[in-house]
């Protein structure tokens, strides 16, 4: 596979203008779009079903004149494109042994590499394909036929290998069948699937088609490129709107504009490394029965030109957008997703509370984001169980670095939510401990900081004993990844509701709760907490009582670390690829030097801090990434980060 492209391969779905039964007109339009694809550095482009003749020729398919002309124009197209570095797939009727097949012809640089016949022929409602064509079967061995001047492999079970990327083809109705041929293609190793289609337009049909393709792409853990017939097909009884889609593992990357009269070429990149990562993790995919009757055909190697040209800003061109916040729910289902995430946290805590039969929930409330989210989860849990909010004991524990802003917000929030609140200063206890162990309190080192964190944890644990309670942990997924927690301090609790929530998502959840589930008093406090800089507040305040310790100044921006975390754990991408993606996602925010600096910090901390993750408390998994040693992530505590750095 060409690593210059970081695993990206540019594909396209083309919708040409057609004239029914005018092969010469159609083939020239196809050629024009092939040239346009080359100009846009497309690697593989797919055309609609029977695009050489048009799909709606009806009984004209019985005419030898039409089928011979189609073959001649394919031969002409081969010669016209022999210097063009692009693989193209066109639809054409192919005659063999006095039978006519609805086929896809796979070509590149003057050569036909294979012909794939349609397996399932629709013969219901407005479709009459069995009147003209012969269906094919997947269990028929691949044969050789002579077509358009080449001796060509012919069969439904062809697998094409292009520069290490394997792709296969099915045609229209095939994907509507109970077990589509593409399912077998994927089991045989196809990472990209191409569908040449001519599905007519009906009310509501488009939504069904998109759902169908999305599901097949996700089920096969593959890219799926769909090219549907458009303007120019016969409108005697039907209309064709030109539907074209590019999906990747169920996600829509690009789609055409419907009911357009002009030709269209939709382009995007598919991420083969992403698809391979999904398949490696999926044990049902790994243990699949591999069909043994496939023939693999090698198509010539890639030119490597896709992402080597850089634009003026210095970043390689991509059609696809790289989301800088991959943990944040999409806009179209944002509210639903936030409610679901919050409900997972609530359900986990509710089960633990009911099982242990405790009489209180104990939390340290700092006036920061994490403890705020944990408190909101606790309140919702108590409400759903029909219990009194007074069961929740919120303890604010001001220390050497506590600012008036966070202190006030902690008190206001507890008051607004109607829980039991207590204030216990840790200053005297920490000063005594400095004396006990002989530590100079003017030395603000790691000992100075961790003494405070462990003192707070001791208070919470002891109050839980006093009240027959359970200490609710507040630390989040990002802090676990970076090891930004004091071992046997805030690292420890009896149930940790935020362990599956990265820092970028914590902020969104708190805002969502504030805007959707809180009264004006609580909302005002929550919004101010959202505006407060992230800090452990373990170093003394300045002369004006202002915060002097800012987490992101020390470990780096959480939005970058969450981005690194997502692509490292979700797909196992190489650092070079994650760096490439980060440049694309954050090019308006951070330059290459800044991204590189914090990426190194991420890998160093992630590897060196595994020992903390090896003994974290229970907590609910929320998204696709979790660091629990009992769940998603098992890693030696003494593994080396050298090759990642």
Q: Would you kindly provide a written description of the structure presented here, covering whatever features stand out?
A:
This protein has 645 residues and is α/β, with parallel strands linked by helices. It has two domains: 10-277, 4-Layer Sandwich (Nitrilase/N-carbamoyl-D-aminoacid amidohydrolase), CATH 3.60.110.10; 331-613, HUPs (Rossmann fold). The chain is 37% helix and 18% strand. The strands form four sheets. The chain has a seven-stranded mixed β-sheet, covered by helices on one side. Strands 5-4-3-2-1-14 form a six-stranded mixed β-sheet. The protein has a five-stranded parallel β-sheet with strand order 18-17-16-19-20, with helices on both faces. The radius of gyration is 31 Å and the shape is elongated.
SSE order and pairing:
Layout: E1 8-15, H1 23-39, E2 44-46, H2 64-80, E3 87-96, E4 99-108, E5 111-117, E6 143-147, E7 150-154, E8 158-162, E9 165-171, H3 181-187, E10 192-197, H4 205-220, E11 223-228, E12 244-248, E13 251-255, E14 264-271, H5 272-281, H6 283-286, E15 295-299, H7 334-356, E16 360-364, H8 369-384, E17 392-396, H9 404-417, E18 420-423, H10 427-437, H11 446-466, E19 469-473, H12 477-482, E20 495-496, H13 503-517, H14 520-531, H15 551-554, H16 558-570, H17 575-586, H18 592-608, H19 610-613
Parallel strand pairs: 1-2, 2-3, 8-15, 9-10, 10-11, 16-17, 16-19, 17-18, 19-20
Antiparallel strand pairs: 1-14, 3-4, 4-5, 6-7, 8-9, 11-12, 12-13
Helix pairs in contact: 1-2, 7-8, 8-13, 9-14, 10-11, 13-14, 16-17, 16-18, 17-18
């Amino acid at each position: 596979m060409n690593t210059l492209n970081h695993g990206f391969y540019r594909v396209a779905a083309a919708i040409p203008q057609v004239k029914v039964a005018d092969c010469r007109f159609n083939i020239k339009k196809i050629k024009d779009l092939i040239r346009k694809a080359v100009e846009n550095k497309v690697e593989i482009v797919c055309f609609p079903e029977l695009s050489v003749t048009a799909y709606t020729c009806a009984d004209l398919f019985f005419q030898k004149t039409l089928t011979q002309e189609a073959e001649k124009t394919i031969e002409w197209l081969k010669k016209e494109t022999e210097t063009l570095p692009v693989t193209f797939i066109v639809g054409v009727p192919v005659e063999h042994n006095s039978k006519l097949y609805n086929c896809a012809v796979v070509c590149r640089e003057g050569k036909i590499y294979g012909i794939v016949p349609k397996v399932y022929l629709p013969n219901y409602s407005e479709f009459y394909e069995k009147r003209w064509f012969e269906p094919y079967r997947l269990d028929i061995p691949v044969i050789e036929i002579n077509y358009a001047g080449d001796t060509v492999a012919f069969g439904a079970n062809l697998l094409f290998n292009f520069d290490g990327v394997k792709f296969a083809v099915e045609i229209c109705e095939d994907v509507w069948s109970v077990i589509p041929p593409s399912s077998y293609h994927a089991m045989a190793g196809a990472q990209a699937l191409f569908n040449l289609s001519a599905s007519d337009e009906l009310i509501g049909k488009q939504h069904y088609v998109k759902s169908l393709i999305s599901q097949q792409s996700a089920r096969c853990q593959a890219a799926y490129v769909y090219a549907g017939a458009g303007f120019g097909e016969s409108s005697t009884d039907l209309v064709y709107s030109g539907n074209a889609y590019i999906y990747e593992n169920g996600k829509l990357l690009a789609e055409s504009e419907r009911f357009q009269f002009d030709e269209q070429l939709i382009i995007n990149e598919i991420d083969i490394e992403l698809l391979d990562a999904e398949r490696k993790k999926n044990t049902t995919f790994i243990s699949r029965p591999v069909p043994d009757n496939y023939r693999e055909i090698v198509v010539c190697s890639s030119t490597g030109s896709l992402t080597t040209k850089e634009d003026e800003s210095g970043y390689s061109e991509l059609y696809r957008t790289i989301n800088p916040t991959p943990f944040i729910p999409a806009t179209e289902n944002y509210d639903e997703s936030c409610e679901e995430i919050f409900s997972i946290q609530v359900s986990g805590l509710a089960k633990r509370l009911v099982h242990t039969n405790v009489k209180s929930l104990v939390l340290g409330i700092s006036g920061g984001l994490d403890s705020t989210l944990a408190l909101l989860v606790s309140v919702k849990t108590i409400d759903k169980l029909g219990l009194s909010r007074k069961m929740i004991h919120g303890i604010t524990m001001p220390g050497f670095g506590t600012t008036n802003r966070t202190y006030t917000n902690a008190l206001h929030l507890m008051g607004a939510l109607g829980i039991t609140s207590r204030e216990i200063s840790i200053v005297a206890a920490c000063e005594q401990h400095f004396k006990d162990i002989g530590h100079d309190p003017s030395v603000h080192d790691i000992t100075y900081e961790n003494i405070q964190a462990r003192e707070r944890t001791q208070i919470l644990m002891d109050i839980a004993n006093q009240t027959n309670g359970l200490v609710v942990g507040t630390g989040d997924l990002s802090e676990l990844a970076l090891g930004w927690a004091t071992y046997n301090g805030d690292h420890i609790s009896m149930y940790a509701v935020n362990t599956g929530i990265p820092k970028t998502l914590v902020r969104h959840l708190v805002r969502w709760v504030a805007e959707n589930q809180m009264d004006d008093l609580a909302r005002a406090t929550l919004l101010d907490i959202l505006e407060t800089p992230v800090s452990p507040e373990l170093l003394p305040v300045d002369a004006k009582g202002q915060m002097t310790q800012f987490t992101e100044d020390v470990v780096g921006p959480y939005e970058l670390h969450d981005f690194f975390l997502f692509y490292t754990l979700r797909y196992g991408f190489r650092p070079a690829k994650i760096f490439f993606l980060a440049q694309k996602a954050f090019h308006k925010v951070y330059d290459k030097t800044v991204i590189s600096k914090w990426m190194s910090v991420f890998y160093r901390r992630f590897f060196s801090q595994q020992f903390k993750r090896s003994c974290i408390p229970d907590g609910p998994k929320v998204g696709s990434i979790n660091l629990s040693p009992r769940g998603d992530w098992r890693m030696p505590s003494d593994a080396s980060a050298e090759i990642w750095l």
